[in-house]
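User: Predict the structure for this protein chain, please.
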Amino acid sequence: MTFDPNAQLDTSDVSDARGGGGFLGGGFPGGRGGIVGLLLTLVAAAVGIPVATMGGGNSSGNQAAPGVVNSSSLAAKCRTGADANANDDCRVVAVVDSVENYWTTAFADTGKKYQRAQTVLFSGSTSTACGPATTEVGPFYCPGDKTVYLDLGFWQELRTRFGAKGGPFAQAYVVAHEYGHHIQDLQGTLGRAQQGAQGANGGSVRTELQADCYAGIWAHWATTTKDANGRPFIDALSQQDIADALNAASAVGDDRIQQETQGKVTPETWTHGSAAQRQKWFTTGYQTGELKACDTFAGGI
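Assistant: Here is the predicted structure, written as structure tokens:
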């Protein structure tokens, strides 16, 4: 994946909370910690936050993300696509710009207005409208403040602990997956994560697979997204880029993680879907580029 070196980046949707304090210690209320089982996840669904989101007072609406440092450092160093090609922080900014540009256009095409999300970069720990977050949780979307939280140390974790090959587009897949949860939040379907059966055919798995499919839709249209001056954010995607995304999706399949960590696979406890399912639904979105193809809640998965 290469960005147009002259594309103009907009850092207004990305904040840097690294070194900004945040919340020290603890875990998500009512939930379970650890990157295993929460990776690339809708944290709200995986650790019980929907109860607070739908019925509680501290995680509803579109609140400002607690503990965020609105640093000007990103704006200073992340100006163009050339910066995104050279720097991980700026690459996240460029991917967020591209993802938000796509969904703004997609919503407008259906007569709807897209509500932009925020992305917060953090290290170690930070506070959120869904509770305190730590590095062990992994990337997640909090519906309480409509914010994606990313600890960039996760990229290394993805390679060393879970055996993914990595690569810039694997990182982009992670960001696009979390924004897929934002789309579900705007559609009013996020709560379906806790509905129906549990395990391999449950609502949580179907929710995660749909977010993978939405990430694939963005990938389908990624080279058409443009900055404020009409320049494309992304020049080209290669087959290797797509392979890297599929490899990352496979690496965090429930069956792969369970086999590695407990020596056996227990589908009745799945929350995200198998490696094959995650690859299948990303591919579905990528090949079709259509929202209607991502209905993981109907029929088999």
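The longest helix spans residues 88-109.
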